[in-house]
Amino acid sequence: ERTRNHKIKTMDIDKFDKFDAFADAEEETGDNSKIHIRVQQRNGRKCITLVEGLADDLDIKRICKAFKKNFSCNGALTKDEDDSEIVQLSGDQRTNVKDFLVDQEICRSGQIVIHGF
After folding, report:
1. How many CB atoms lie within 10 A of CB 47?
2. pLDDT band per the 50, 70, 90 thresholds, residue 83
3. What's 41-88 look like in SS3?
4. Lower CB count within 10 Å: N or C terminus of the chain?
5. What pLDDT is recorded for position 117?
6. Whole-model pTM?
């Protein structure tokens, strides 16, 4: 019988230690700040939605304008005691705000906390 010389390539096992499969996943969880969406009762059946905890580097005025246009409601920006911006929207817009923030990739769904009723 005829035998052939097969050359077997050996893999460098040291390379496996240097590769980190979860390196990109850690970058995604970099900002874990919570965004709180609350509903506050006004009078009768009227209520307002408060959005707190948006990052300071975001253009909150522009986000408020997009909320008002997409949800067909009125809105305003107010300052908190610790000088953080709060978005006030008329009506119960909790689910709309959450869907908008996730769709526009402003934050992840796990960062949003919905309060009220």
Report:
1. 19
2. confident
3. ECCCCCEEEEEECCCCCCCHHHHHHHHHHHHCCCEEEEECCCCCEEEE
4. N
5. 65
6. 0.71
- CA-CA distance, 61 to 85, in Å (whole number)? 9
Sorted by sequence, the CB contacts under 8 Å of residue 9 that are 6+ apart come out as none
Cβ-proximal residues to 77 (8 Å cutoff; 6+ apart), any chain: 60, 61, 64, 85, 86, 87, 88
- Half-sphere exposure in the Cβ direction for 72 (13 Å, CA): 0
3-state helix, strand, coil in the chain (%, to 5): 30, 25, 45
Q: Say what percent of the chain tops pLDDT 90.
A: 61
67 neighbors 75 (Cβ within 8 angstroms): yes
